[in-house]
Here is the input.
Amino acid sequence: MKKLLSIVNDNDEVIDEKPREEIHKKGMLHREINIYFVTPNGEIFFQHRAKDKDTFPDLLDATVGGHVEIGHSYKETAVKETEEETGVKINYADLIFINKIKKYSEDKITKTVNNAINSHYVYIYRGKINDLRVEAGKALGFEVWSIEKVLNIDNNDRVRFIPSILEFATTELTEFIKNLKL
Here is the structure.
């Protein structure tokens, strides 16, 4: 059975349900979350997506990302996906809300479209990268980047990222981290 997701309008109101594959093929507006693990030193953890993902394969992504399932809230999804993708158990109170934005991106390789209302969160992670559990079949691992490296990224590293993730990391996320009192 195909996994159904909610389709939403520009006001983030559910208007229909369709299979995930159809949503990405046709670029229908849906709900997603991203969580960025940030260390007390201001480093950011990025997830390296598996080579066979249907969207943006083999690229660097937010530490945790996922579709909001039918009937779930953004925060419920963030907590669930964090444990699934990293092995780290968190509570709603552990999440620091950054923003909720509409984002649109096209994957030139897989010819899919990601058109989503995305809630962004930060989680202050005090562990080591080796403590994270990689979700089998979904990711290859994690990378830790300093804010300076993100802000001064060269062209060789730039192409390793999902473009919208890098754009967010170099703007709102780094600004947010600079203002955090850790």
User: Anything to note?
Assistant: The helical segments are 20-26, 74-86, 147-151, 155-158, 163-179.
